[in-house]
Each structure stands twice: as structure tokens, then as C-alpha cells.
Write a structure and sequence with these properties.
Number of strands: 10
Shape: globular
Radius of gyration: 17 Å
Order of helices and strands: EHEHEHEHEHEHEHEEEH
Strand order of the largest sheet: 1-2-3-4-5-6-7-8
CATH topology: TIM Barrel
Largest sheet: 8 strands, parallel, barrel
Length: about 240
């Protein structure tokens, strides 16, 4: 079954994603997505019927966490699960870029104790051997993995995604994401055989209070920030439905 998941960085992004099948709720998408605020999650639950996957990631950079960070991640996960999250997106790696099986297993067990979905996010794209890592996630009973095929965008990871899908044989859901839009989504689904799509569907808005002549708080151009565009969401959804 084809599914469209929108990567959201705010409550307003979720409101603009109502035509999607599911959202992944984050904060700080320019850092790759961090744990969202609890208020943004509650508002999204109150005002949409979307399935909401909550990101649990306490900081930017990599996926080898300190004991304090791990404690917070598990507390955040349980708070979201208790309050109706459809699932949790997370990722734990060892320093050698292999899956941290102990922490992954612990998180999966927590999530499944609430009968919700365990989603291993794009930390998976850093592992040295994706085929071996996929088998590990399957054995740990992870429900879904988000991946670009180990490349900077799905369009460069097509061959790897095809390999993952061929060895998967329906044992885990593969969700492909990064660089998918209304112009390439049909081609990518056809080439990979993977029917779940994750995209930010974003446009850029201007906030003139971002910078002055001395300094800037910008992360793209001087005065802009990214938001989900509901028209882009609708366009991708339409392309997928017509496939």
C-alpha cells in the first residue's frame, strides 16, 4: 500500500499536511530533526486525525549518546506514547557505525509495550553494511526503517534501495526519504518497488528579523526558514495516487 509521510518541524507544518497518510513530528529540521515540543504534539493530536510519529533525538550531529541523553530520550518517548503518538522515530549507533542493538532493543520493547510503531530513522544511512543492519533491525522487531539508500538523496541510492527491498521480502516496512518530490516520486517508486515515501514538501518563507548588517541567525539564506507547503503535499499525493 502506498503511503505518504510528511516530515514536519512544527504544529503548523502538521496542519499543512492533512492530505498525507502520516507525519513525523520534529523540531529543528535544519539539524536533521530533533525531539518536538510536547505542546506542538498535543495541538497536532487535537486538531488533526493524522497518525503522528514523534522524533526522539536530543541533539544534532551523530547517534552515539551519553547516559544523560539516553535517559531523556526514553522519558520523551514514553511521554509521547502515553499521550497517543502512533510511534517513535529513533536511532542508536555504536562508534564503529553499527547498530547499537542493546539500546535499539530496549526502545523497541518500550514502544511495543504501548502497541505502537518502532521506526529506525536515517541513522541507518550511516551504517557500514546496510544489508546486515537491515537483518539486525528485523531481528530486533523494528517495524519500519527510514532510508535514502545510504546516500545524500534517494535518487543517488536507487540501487541500494532496490537491494534492500529484494532481501526484505516484506519482513519490515521500508520508508524511503530525502529528495523526493512531485516530479520524481513516480519514477522512484517504479524503480525501487518501495511504496512508502517520506518528504518535507517544503517552501521557504521570509522573516526579516533573522539578520541585520552585523549578524545572522539564518541557516539557509539570510532571512528565510522552511515550512511544509500544503499544495506540494497535495501534488505529491496526487502523483502517488495516479501511479
Amino acid at each position: 500500500m502506498k503511503k505518504l509521510e510528511i516530515c514536519c518541524g512544527s504544529y503548523e507544518d502538521v496542519l499543512n499536511s492533512k492530505e498525507a497518510d502520516r507525519v513525523e513530528l520534529n523540531s529543528a529540521l535544519h539539524l536533521g530533526g530533533l525531539t518536538p515540543s510536547f505542546a506542538s504534539f498535543i495541538k497536532a493530536k487535537e486538531n488533526t486525525n493524522l497518525d503522528i510519529i514523534c522524533m526522539v533525538r536530543p541533539r544534532g550531529a551523530g547517534f552515539k549518546y551519553t547516559p544523560a541523553e539516553i535517559e531523556i530520550m526514553f522519558m520523551d518517548a514514553e511521554i509521547f506514547l502515553k499521550n497517543g503518538a502512533k510511534g517513535i522515530a529513533f536511532g542508536f549507533l555504536n562508534e564503529d557505525l553499527s547498530i547499537d542493538e542493546i539500546l535499539t532493543s530496549k526502545m523497541v520493547k518500550l514502544i511495543h509495550s504501548y502497541q505502537k510503531e518502532a521506526v529506525f530513522h536515517r541513522a541507518f544511512d550511516l551504517v557500514t553494511d546496510q544489508e546486515k543492519a537491515l537483518e539486525i533491525l528485523i531481528n530486533l522487531k523494528v517495524d519500519r526503517v527510514l532510508t535514502s539508500g545510504g546516500r545524500s538523496a534517494v535518487s543517488f541510492g536507487i540501487d541500494n534501495l532496490k537491494k534492500l527491498e529484494s532481501i526484505n521480502k516484506g519482513r519490515i516496512e521500508i520508508l524511503m526519504g530525502c529528495g523526493i518530490n512531485a516530479f520524481n516520486v513516480k519514477k522512484i517508486i517504479k524503480e525501487t518497488g518501495i511504496k512508502q515515501v517520506h518528504t518535507s514538501a517544503k517552501k521557504w518563507l521570509i522573516d526579516p528579523t533573522t539578520s541585520n548588517k552585523y549578524l545572522s541567525y539564518g541557516y539557509h539564506l539570510d532571512n528565510d526558514y522552511d515550512v511544509v507547503d500544503k499544495e506540494i503535499v497535495a501534488a505529491i499525493k496526487l502523483e502517488m495516487e495516479e501511479f
